[in-house]
Amino acid sequence: MNQMNWGLIGPGSIAHTFADAISQSERGKLAAVASSSAERGQAFAKKYNIPTVYDNYQALISDPDIDIIYIATPHSFHYPQAKLCLEGGKNVLLEKPSTITAKQIERLTELAQQKGLFFQEAIWTRFMPVLAQVKEKIKQGAIGKVQYISSTIGFAFQHREETRLFDPKLGGGALLDLGLYPIAVSQCLLDEEPSVIQAMGKVSDKQIDETTIVNMRYPSGIYSQFTCSATGHSPNVMTIVGSNGNIVLPAMFWDTDTAHVYDLAGLVETIRVPHKVNGFEYQIEESMDCVEAGQLYSSLMSHDESIGIIEIMDEIRSQIGLAFSSDIEKL
């Protein structure tokens, strides 16, 4: 088992979760960090004992000792930064959502395939073992025929001192940051993409969606409905409803280490797989497995699925009248 050196772009809040997880890896090492703020980069490196700090991204990409780069910046920066990394010959784990528009993620996957590089969207839920077990329970008929999936995801961010979700220049709003999860989990459990999408939402004067409500119908006849909100504190639970029972992913359902299985009489089983660290470890280890095997993406989250998720969100944005500036939507 060879050591794999990671580089990190953007030492913001989510990067701390990543750094905590990789610190427990037996083969992965966070060897370098790049930040537009030298002060923030130095502070992050000191906290996690990272030996190398760069004050520009190109220097990190040019480092021959770096095997893979995790991009942890706000999603409005994902497309140009991931493009720079792939053009520089680096494997990439890209924080969700992958990009602002479907055209952007399509370009990135094409580039990765042309270069023969590993390129993965980091939707951490998709790599968690509990989700795989839930999918298997559904396949086994534990709750009968699935009828619909219902979920909420939301937080009252207006009560926080600082949040990027109210900044349209950063692709703010509930949909891209939060609504992605119900779409990604539904897509995983049903193995299909919706044929009909109906959406409505409250778009603020700042041009961010405060609350968005979506109904999706799949070719199989199954439905998925969700509400995402940046101003309302939600129960944050997902329920998969079947003809003979249901499965509940309790709050916070996207950080799923527990699932409750019910039949018509009540609770049948509780599935619990506690995270070894914080939940990020699964996508980190899977990424290294794929790089070692020469795979361009994980079978748990394909390029086509990443494109499909953004295509769905493009359609939702169109229906609710949510558009961002050309600066962050451009190719």
UniProtKB/TrEMBL annotation:
Residues 4-120 form the Gfo/Idh/MocA-like oxidoreductase N-terminal domain. It comes from the Bacteria. Keywords: Oxidoreductase, Signal. Pfam families: GFO_IDH_MocA, GFO_IDH_MocA_C3. Gene3D superfamilies: Dihydrodipicolinate Reductase, domain 2 (3.30.360.10), NAD(P)-binding Rossmann-like Domain (3.40.50.720). Residues 132-247 form the GFO/IDH/MocA-like oxidoreductase domain. Belongs to the Gfo/Idh/MocA family. PANTHER family: OXIDOREDUCTASES, TRANS-1,2-DIHYDROBENZENE-1,2-DIOL DEHYDROGENASE. This is Gfo/Idh/MocA family oxidoreductase. It comes from Paraglaciecola aquimarina.
